[in-house]
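I have been asked to look over a protein record a colleague put together. The record follows directly below this note.
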Amino acid sequence: MRQRAATMNANCIFPFAILILCIYNGVSACNPDWMEYSGICYKYFNSTEVDFRMARKFCQVLKGDLAYINPNMTGLLELSLSNNYWVRENSVATAPLPAVSQSECPYLKMKLINYADCSENHGFICETPNNPAAETCPEGWSLYDSKCYKTIEVSDEFFNESVSPCASNNGYWLFSIMTKKKKAVPL
């Protein structure tokens, strides 16, 4: 009987299982080809050059408007280094501007707001409100309360590698649970 119990115990040793819960805050309600900045979605249109009026209509068809730009938008301003982009009136200039006529419209170039004849053709920047109803998570993640979650089950040998899926998706490791299956009790 003792030998049977020892054999049974040897066959019932289970490795640890680790469950890791990752959380990902990078939920975006912007279309994939748009960028989010401070809760607003932006898109640069540099291959389509149109006059100011058509640029505005184009943005309105997309349920937005020309982008309002201010000097604090450093991430967006970096993208304006090479082309001219129509932007919304009253965008904030980084330096005082001379008085402009009604036929002049604002454009962004080299991080500065300038004015040009509204009939000139330039690229443009559209903005649309962030749409919380369209929030999505990366494939394999679940959406809950505007955050993405993912559980990963791994053995204890691969614990360090298991947190990398969290980091690779700009997420972070929330917690882990180590479990050990119970050994069978011999009769």
